[in-house]
Amino acid sequence: MRTDKNYSFIFHQDALKQALPTIKEVQGLKEDASIDLKTPTNDSATKLRHYYGCLLGLAVGDALGTTLEFKQPGTFKPIKDIVGGGPFKLLPGQWTDDTSMALCLAESLIESKGFNPKDQLEKYLKWYEEGYLSSTGKCFDIGNTTISALLEFKETQQPYCSSPNSTPSNGSLMRLAPIPMLYHNAPVEAIEKAKQSSLTTHGAKESIDACRYLAGLIVGAIDGVSKDELLSDHYAPAKDIWEKDPLIDTVDKIASGSFKHKEPPYIRGTGLAVESLEAALWAFYKASSFAEGALLAVNLGDDADTTGAIYGQLAGAFYGVEGIPTEWLNKLCKKDLIESLALEIYKTTFSENNNLN
Questions:
Q1: What whole-number distance in Å separates Cα of residue 61 and Cα of residue 133?
Q2: pLDDT tens-digit profile of 168-210?
Q3: Mean pLDDT across the chain, nearest whole number?
Q4: How far apart are CA 287 and CA 227, in angstroms?
Q5: How many Cα atoms are found within 13 Å in the side-chain-facing hemisphere of 98?
Q6: Domains of the chain
Q7: Which residue, 49, 47, 3, is CA-closest to 22?
Q8: Are the CB atoms for 219 and 192 separated by under 8 Å?
Q9: For residue 46, how many C-alpha atoms fall within 13 Å in the half-sphere facing its CB?
Q10: What is the CA radius of gyration of the chain?
Q11: Residues 179-207 as b or e (16 or more Cβ within 10 Å = b)
């Protein structure tokens, strides 16, 4: 966690005129007649809990799943808690590349006051080379598609250098949350920026459209849309989005609800964008709580940390931070940093002087 004085954007308290509730106050909210998760609301405390939940949920899912990363289904005892270990021998609560890249993206969006692809890639490269915003101080887990894009950017300084013929993997999907959080008030823009975010490292159409579809779901979840509506046929947070710019067939099948009619082993949490998105939505559909779905997601094995991170950002946005088990949040590495970035994205989004790039 950076503590230098230049990192002061985290602590600015004047982005909004009204005081915002702390994370503890948000966690203390109860579901009663005045706070209904299924009803959209502009109440600052209620909206903020979805922002906290989205980014913290991503990190919690990542930390939960790292234990089972690379393990084949049927070869391990299912886990029930954040216990660390895994191929990188992490401490309980430490997370992997999913969260590191999401935090780099969040920081870039805040500092740039919007979308700056070169700045994003510079931060990703700093993470790769120096361990910036890592849970251990080192980059210990990174996908081949991401490495290829970062090295190409380092040489050319071109922000969109990922080939459309690259592997359609899930490295852009796993880090996505800050995009729909920041552009929540402009759903069409959120989906377009999700596309551009993927293009910085993952140019395959399946990777791009998986990001576009998940971005729309997260926008809806933050707004308090019911689960039935979110998972309805081709849900979109704005009219005619998928008609004007259709999803590739493999993602379109997911948008039509393919995950509702499958079970493992036909649901697989692999490193491919389409399969990991389908697995995360299967877990979200089957579960009635954040914890239940998170355990369903990561216990699929394979790319368990990323399946957990994809599930966690959507489920966290839907259930809110108070839906995430407190004992899991208390274990989370650099929780204060993640909270403060979520808060700053919220303040940027709802500032009266919001002129996002």
A1: 17
A2: 999 999 999 999 999 999 999 999 999 999 999 999 999 999 9
A3: 90
A4: 11
A5: 32
A6: 47-350 (1.10.4080.10)
A7: 49
A8: no
A9: 17
A10: 18
A11: bbbbbbebbbbbbbbbbbbbbbbbbbbbb
Whole-model pTM? 0.90
pLDDT tens string 19-49 = 345 555 555 443 332 333 333 344 677 899 9
| Token couple for 253 | 């099948």
Cα atoms in the Cβ-side hemisphere of radius 13 Å centred on 107:
23
pLDDT at 213: 99
Which of 42-46, 139-143, 168-172, 315-319 is predicted with the least confidence, judged by mean pLDDT?
42-46
Q: Which of 60, 31, 2, 24 has the alpha carbon at shortest distance from 325?
A: 60
- The tokens describing 142, both together, are 């990174």
How long a stretch of residues is the chain?
Answer: 357
Kindly state the tokens that stand for 199: 């293009």
Write phi, then psi, for 39 (nearest 5 degrees): -115, 120
HEC letters along the chain? CCCCHHHHHHHCCCCCCCCCCCHHHHHCCCCCCCCCCCCCCCCHHHHHHHHHHHHHHHHHHHHHHHHHCCCCCCCCCCCCCCCCEHHHCECCCCCCHHHHHHHHHHHHHHHCCCCCHHHHHHHHHHHHHHCCCCCCCCCCCCCHHHHHHHHHHHHHCCCCCCCCCCCCECCCCCCCCHHHHHCCCCHHHHHHHHHHHHHCCCCCHHHHHHHHHHHHHHHHHHCCCCHHHHCCCCCCCCCCHHHHCCCCHHHHHHHCCHHHHCCCCCCCCCCEHHHHHHHHHHHHHHCCCHHHHHHHHHCCCCCHHHHHHHHHHHHHHHHCHHHCCHHHHHHCCCHHHHHHHHHHHHHHHHCCCCCCC
Locus of tokens 């980014």: 55
Neighbours of 164 (CB within 10 A): 12
- The per-residue pLDDT for 356 is 84
Sole residue written with tokens 């954007």: 9
pLDDT at residue 265 above 80? yes
Q: Is the pLDDT assigned to residue 62 strictly greater than 80?
A: yes
How far is residue 286's CA from residue 263's CA, in Å, rounded to a whole number? Answer: 10
Amino acid, res. 112: S
Query: What is the percent of the chain with per-residue pLDDT over 90, rounded to a whole number?
Result: 85
